[in-house]
Amino acid sequence: MYGPPWPLTWRVAAEPPTLSDSAIHLWRLRTGEDGDDPETGLAWLAPAQRARVAALRDPAARAGYARAQIGLRRVLAAYLGCHPAEIAFGHGPRGKPHLAGAGEDAGALQFSLTTTGELAVVAVARGAPLGVDCERVRPRTSLDAIARRMLPAAVVEALAALPAAARLEQFHLAWTALEADVKADGRGLARRREPLTAPPGIGHCLAAPGYIAAVARIGLAPPPTWTGLELPAVGTGRAL
Question: What percent of the chain is predicted at pLDDT more than 90?
Fold first, then answer.
């Protein structure tokens, strides 16, 4: 079973601190009505992203997706010293996104994005790929069925032995660990790890009250060394 998530401290920063090879930077983005005005950076998105924004019928989902993608570009642009519109993405053979720009900094910079409810988290590191997942801890009627279908048998057995409150938290710790793990190498939930491939290290933190985030990476530094950051606000938070 996992220990309690680390109570990470979050601070607003216009520029990222120095990113060493072992450092983990987590950026928290507000994607609900208290987030930035999504129209402010809509023109920065790639044509396919703007088309997806336009195709989403629910106004909250439309604004939330735009805020997450614009925020991701703002974060990455701060490390690369460029405009958010200049950020270009490619995808690996399994679909994992990566920076496609030229230059040593773009090639070494690794990132992962997760969205849940009205919150998004961007994890940034150098060198080894990483994955991040975040979930709001909430009761789920299908919790046991999901656990049996997706989690290892030993974890399912350990969950069943816990009282309800502890079981709820441990399920979310295990689930975010699984999601972060498969995002680190891009294989997805439906594929098994490649034979003889070492599993990544897993760490957890509190992304906000009631939200657990997990980071997966080979050689992962412990959560107390992670840096929690937020971008300065832009715009008024209007919906699209």
Answer: 73
- Residue 31 has a CB neighbour count (10 Å cut-off) of 25
d(CA 112, CA 175): 17
Using a 10 angstrom Cβ sphere, with 0-12 exposed, 13-18 middle and 19 or more buried, the burial of residue 120 is buried
Fold classification of 10-230 is: Ribosomal Protein L22; Chain A (3.90.470)
Write down the domain spans for the chain: 10-230
pLDDT greater than 80 at residue 238:
no
Residue 100 backbone dihedrals phi, psi, to 5 degrees: -105, 0
Q: Do 28 and 132 contact (CB within 8 A), yes or no?
A: no
- Residues 106-165 pLDDT 10s: 668 999 999 998 999 999 999 999 999 999 999 888 888 999 998 999 999 999 999 988
What residue spans of the chain are helical by DSSP H? 47-55, 59-80, 104-108, 143-150, 153-160, 164-185
pTM summary value = 0.92
Rounded to 10 deg, the angle between the 143-150 and 164-185 helix axes is 40
Q: Are 41 and 70 in contact (CB under 8 A)?
A: yes
What pLDDT is recorded for position 240? 53
